[in-house]
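WARN no homologs supplied; continuing
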Amino acid sequence: MTQVQIRLSEKVVKEIDRWVVEKGFKSRSDAIRAIIAFYEEREETRKFFRMLASRSEEARKHPEMLVSLEE
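OK structure emitted
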């Protein structure tokens, strides 16, 4: 794993320290990795939602292209 250094405000560091205690993370690094993983998952969910919305719009424009679920 690659190590990086970042600068954070004291307020953010205190919040991370609170998460370490309250959520049971082993370290600040573990808490930050979890935050990044959550962010990545949220972005993938948003991407999936946009795809569904696009497909839904296509279905409204071209209902003849839909496949019946009753066949």
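The helical segments are 10-23, 28-61.
OK
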